[in-house]
Amino acid sequence: MIRLDAFIIALVVASALGVVAAQHQARKLFSELEREQARARGLEVEWGQLQLEQSTWAAHGRVERMAHEVLGLRPPASGQVIVVEPRR
Amino acid sequence: MKKKPVAVTLNHNPLLKRELPVWRSRVVLVGLLGCSVALVARAAWLQGFNNEFLQAKGESRYARSLEVPATRGRITDRNGDVLAMSTPVRSVWAIPSDARLSPADARALAGLLGMDVADLNDRLGSARDFVYLRRQLAPEVAEKVAALKLPGIHLQQEYRRYYPAGETTAHILGFTGVEDRGQEGIELAYDRVLTGASGSRRVIKDRRGQIVEDVESIRPPRDGEDLALSIDSKIQYLAYSALREAMHKHKAKAGAVLVLDAQTGEVLALANAPTYNPNNRANLTGAQLRNRVITDSFEPGSTLKPFVAALAIERGKVTAATQIDTGEGRMNIGRNTIHDTSRHGLINVAEIVQKSSNVGTVKIAMDFPPQELWTFYDALGFGAQLGLDFPGEAAGRLRPASTWRPIEQATMSYGHGLSVTLIQLARAYLAFARDGDLLPVSLVRKDGLPRAGKRVLSVQTAREMRAILEMAAGPGGTAPKAQIPGYRVAGKTGTAHKLENGRYTNKYVSSFVGFAPVSAPRLVVAVMIDEPVSGQHYGGAVAAPVFARITASALRALGVAPDAPLQPLQLARPATADAAARDREAM
């Protein structure tokens, strides 16, 4: 009888320690998850800012100015355009 | 061990021998019992029946309710280019009574916030409990402010809306307030779609402030939906820059341009001048905010003439070749006289539209009872809102036919005495561009096949009108400057006197509405220039070149195949260019 009691007490103690360990583990993992989620939000914000930056750099006004002033491009005169049509 | 004699034992205590009254022990017993019952009752009360207070107190030691912010949806153009987007910024606020800054700290903070030290000290000297020092600071700067670790200075996260295209798209997008809620334009019209709902959740935090457990998610956050407009940002830019140039050249008071996709009824570009930069909240007031395409109506002038001609052809009253005598360009109706700008004599219906003869148009219009004209104008969408859900959309003015006097019926045929918005006018031209049916216009991208429109003209009439309008935009018409190399264009000019305080003045609204390419119309472009003062004021001279510039580059941008030979444009020898175009169609 005493042996059975001791055995059960040992089981209870072991399970209690297990609960503590599991809880600790869960909290550790959870805080890791939190960190990663915060990182994901941060990256999303950064993505948005990069999109904005891209739109600013690629603004049509700027592209036109660059094409004219830096690259010296201009629209073709009407005589310079050849239209290729598929044979019917 | 020897037993000691015990003088007093427990049992032989002389004190016990005294008879005590029984009630004394009873009192003690009852008193003790009563106390413990009271304790048990109190414990039961606190733990069982009235436990909210203590539970809340306990929970507040470790549990926190956190706001989970939601972001406002993006607005993109039809190709997914970002036109408006919210990004987090920080606002710096202070509790003045806590903020005791050393002069060096104050200088450092003022430097980061871009404020005067005196101004900063002024705000920190305020008697209030809460002052904003600077709203909507870039995150990098905010981090430097946080790194100073100044007492009483706090940061708060907010969202700020950015418009990368700035003034180009200002009128269609509108803008949001400091709280990131829409105040104008699409931002206001679609505020409910774009705005998200922030959520909240309960968490357990440990001693170091880290979240260790999610207790429950009270409300999950719902981010605002993204919105794809029908705008094509390239065409929008082309339209805006052409308009800006024309405004500058003619020193006009205002101007507006609308580009519609003739196949779907979507708005590809909507530009206004004067405009404003929505990224700078400092000057968001005044006339520059007006969206003249949708919220302002004007008397359209001659751009309305083709509709009278179309109705007459549709009803079989005339054909394009019917001769009408416009005489000396004068016509009396009651006590009023209607003038033409020059004498045309005997001309046919096509030429009346081509040369924009008021007298000829009136003669055609007077053949109809007022109700029939009204019904047609109403079917074209004049005098009623188009249902765009755009804030402040104007309906224009079209009076009921029963109130029309003959002179009013006459002036309405050439676009005076009624008012329309530019978007109504452009949409009505869809009927010519689309073989007679009218589509609803849309500011947001429509996916899938366009719905069938409402038929207002027969296919035959619409095609005839296209030929007539091509003449009007051609060498013998009022707007040869609408011509563009490589494409056949059609359209009609308008030059309307402005009505001020009930009288017509010598100020003008010049307009042009047209479409291209004529063989298979793809774009309807409407241009309106308000009060051009420098030199010319005729629609053909002011608005038509803007139409030509926008249409030429927009068709190229859309990759529409040219339907006219690509020769150097020869306005001096019109007959050959025209003939070449016709030959080509016959092939």
TrEMBL record, chain A:
Function per UniProt: Essential cell division protein. May link together the upstream cell division proteins, which are predominantly cytoplasmic, with the downstream cell division proteins, which are predominantly periplasmic.
Record's bilayer topology term: Single-pass type II membrane protein
Any one Gene Ontology BP term: FtsZ-dependent cytokinesis
Cellular component GO terms held in the UniProt record: cell division site; plasma membrane
InterPro entries assigned to the protein according to its UniProt record, in alphabetical order: Cell_div_FtsL
Coiled coil segments of this chain: 19-46
The protein's name: Cell division protein FtsL
Domain of life assignment: Bacteria
Subcellular location: Cell inner membrane; Cell membrane
The encoding gene: ftsL
Protein keywords: Cell cycle, Cell division, Cell inner membrane, Cell membrane, Coiled coil, Membrane, Transmembrane, Transmembrane helix
Quaternary structure and interacting proteins, as annotated: Part of a complex composed of FtsB, FtsL and FtsQ.
This protein's record includes keyword Cell division: yes
Keyword Protein biosynthesis part of the UniProt annotation: no
Family: Belongs to the FtsL family.
Matching Pfam families: FtsL
Principal localisation: membrane
Species annotation: Pseudothauera rhizosphaerae
PANTHER family: CELL DIVISION PROTEIN FTSL
Classification of source organism: Bacteria, Pseudomonadati, Pseudomonadota, Betaproteobacteria, Rhodocyclales
TrEMBL record, chain B:
EC number(s) stated in the UniProt entry for this protein: 3.4.16.4
Active site (record annotation): S302
Catalysed conversion reaction: Preferential cleavage: (Ac)2-L-Lys-D-Ala-|-D-Ala. Also transpeptidation of peptidyl-alanyl moieties that are N-acyl substituents of D-alanine
One Pfam family hit: PBP_dimer
Tagged with keyword Transferase: no
Broadest EC class assigned to this enzyme: hydrolase
Record Gene3D superfamilies: 1.10.150.770, 3.30.450.330, DD-peptidase/beta-lactamase superfamily, Penicillin-binding protein 2a (Domain 2)
Domain of life: Bacteria
Cell location: Membrane
Keywords: Carboxypeptidase, Cell cycle, Cell division, Cell inner membrane, Cell membrane, Cell shape, Cell wall biogenesis/degradation, Hydrolase, Membrane, Peptidoglycan synthesis, Protease, Septation, Transmembrane, Transmembrane helix
UniProt GO MF annotations: penicillin binding; peptidoglycan glycosyltransferase activity; serine-type D-Ala-D-Ala carboxypeptidase activity
Domain named Penicillin-binding protein dimerisation: residues: 68-214
Gene Ontology, cellular component aspect: plasma membrane
Annotated Penicillin-binding protein transpeptidase domain residues: 255-551
Pathway recorded for this protein: Cell wall biogenesis; peptidoglycan biosynthesis
Main location: membrane
GO annotation terms (biological process): cell wall organization; division septum assembly; FtsZ-dependent cytokinesis; peptidoglycan biosynthetic process; proteolysis; regulation of cell shape
Role, per record: Catalyzes cross-linking of the peptidoglycan cell wall at the division septum.
Family of this protein: Belongs to the transpeptidase family. FtsI subfamily.
Stated name of the protein: Peptidoglycan D,D-transpeptidase FtsI
Organism: Pseudothauera rhizosphaerae
